[in-house]
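INTERNAL AUDIT FORM
Audit reference: QA-55
Scope: verify that the stored structure record matches its stored sequence.
Auditor: D.O.
Record contents follow.
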Amino acid sequence: MELGTNQSGQVLVRMEGTGESRLDLYSYQGTKLPAYLIYVVLKTLLAEGWVEKLESLHQSRKNMWKVEVCFSPKGTKEYRLYTIEQHQPVCSSTIAISQGQIETFSIWSEDAAPLLKKVFEDYPPVFLPRYRNYRHFYFFPTHFPLFAKNIKFKEIPEPIKTRREEPQRIKVNHEIFLTDTFPAGVTSGIMETIEALKCLEVLMA
């Protein structure tokens, strides 16, 4: 995937089937993906209706949930989704962004909609790149070679393994659910956020 002048990189995206599936994004080579491009990459590489599918998976969850944004001493922003498993609070999935770039992640598909909603709010996607003023502030992918049928891993890449293990090491107390917690079945708001950002972009263009 070519990002622009002197910026190029390969990003591999995989979304498994229904059930206990995962959404993986692997920064394979070169420049990491700018956070504001995550929407256009997923839209290009996933099947039509991917937002609706992620929202449907989210609403099928059986326990309450909460999204929190944390900051590391190094400035990395981590988006965490908390829920209940076996009557215990857990951190289910995380997405990390460092210096405005998406780190490799592997999250449960049912966690994707609420996490991506928060990412979109903080790093609004650009829906109308044809407007002249965007050229000075953003790089856009100019080429999307799709290798979904050609790239197969005999083993899960280590960065993906690491990202899958990280949430398990986060200790969570029941107090985390005292505020900003939603019951199962409540919409993530991702579709409303996308539509609102599109309208705002038109007004500001």
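Auditor finding: record pair retrieved intact. Residues 145-150 have pLDDT under 50 and may be disordered.
Action required: none
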